[in-house]
Amino acid sequence: MFGLTRCGFLVVLTVWAGQFALLAQIDPYPRALVQLGYNGALEGKSPLAAYMFYYRNAPNFLGRTNLTLRLALAPVYLDTELGIAHALGENTDLGLGLAGGGYADSYDEIRGGRFLENESFTGHGGEASVSVYHCFNPDSQIPLNGLLRGIVHYSTYHRTDQTAVNFQLPSDQTTFSFRTGLRWGGKEPMLFPDLAMELSAWYEGYFRTGSERYGFAGDREIETITHLFWMQALLAYTFPESRQNFYINFTAGTSVNPDRFSAYRLGALLPLVSEFPLSLPGYYFNEISARNYALLGANYIVPLDPKHHWNVNFTGTTALVDYLTGFALPGNWHSGVGAGLLYQSQSLKVMVGYAYGIDAVRSSGRGAQSIGVLMQFDLGKAKQELFSPGQPGRWRGFQKVLGALGD
């Protein structure tokens, strides 16, 4: 099957410092997480929309208090960074990153609500990065962090069994990029966070070794220079008594000289697919290609039992988009809604859900449906539950093994 040939999982860890560089600083907390997400369309044929990876953050790496190792490992992709605290001053840290592997640079062409396999192809690559993290207000309760990051990325492209014979692939390319931004507050790299607040603004520039035409008789182009500008505001809060939780996110972006590889792409409900996921429930993953966008999303969780293990989750998103040239659809608004059943304990979160893309274009008209699964397993908390002090005895030990996944 095409999906298995492409790879069992979409390896879409955010390029450069990975999707877990979420505080614009070196992550100061030890973490060991397994994350999984899947979206499956119920109408039409869609590209595979899934991820599975292990994330490890290890402060005090090699016994050095100023070293932190961050590692994100997917089935065929590795993204890692060594953080050096205070390397450039008391409040300025340095990060040295390496990443590479298979399928992360693949491109799926989705136009007019259709997945065009004959215009899609796989991509592999690797990169190196240098990052500078600075905290402007180390004594404040809410940190203001800045980021400067330089990256060199090499990509190589290959046909799939479905790529058209007369479709010319882009040449292997080297891309130099630069990201800078300010983030006030932040969000932990967790599924459905209990508490978070962020205001941030970003710039990212892509500088390629040259422009190039590819496709059917050169009908599409890779731009030499592209500029992206975007901002994000979010708030997550859990009410102490009821344990109901809400999450609101607003993000907007614009671009200069975007192409297919650098345009904003919206679609699907995969909240940990990147550092800045542009979710549209019910849509294909990366279905909408935009030059400019504004997106507002909200999520609300309501517990169903006294221990708050079983919950119902409601989500909704609406977006105003200015399409990339050649990708226009009737109307500029796109909205989606969804609901799911969520189970959560100290170490495990699993949600099975349904989503409806209200404005998605399909052969039957407007509207599209999808199902999805999201899972997070916290190995650190599971270990604490398993080996926490208690009465000795075989039965007590057996209870602990079971309790690692529940009460």
Kindly state the percentage of residues in helix: under 10%
User: How many domain regions?
Assistant: 1
Which secondary-structure class do the elements indicate? mainly beta
Spatial arrangement of strands, main beta sheet:
1-2-3-4-5-7-8-9-10-13-14-16-17-18-19-20
Summed over residues and divided by their number, the pLDDT gives a mean of: 89
The tally of helices reads 3
Strand residues, percent: over 45%
* Regions with little confidence, pLDDT below 50 for 5+ residues: 1-23, 390-407
CATH classification class: Mainly Beta
Order of helix and strand elements from N to C terminus:
HEEEEEEEEEEEEEEEEEEEEHH
Radius of gyration: 22 Å
Topology, number of strands: 20
The CATH superfamily bears the name: membrane protein fhac: a member of the omp85/tpsb transporter family
Q: Quickly give the CATH architecture.
A: Beta Barrel
Tell me about the biggest sheet? Answer: 16 strands, antiparallel, barrel
- The N- and C-terminal alpha carbons lie at a distance of 40 Å
CATH topology: Porin
Shape: globular
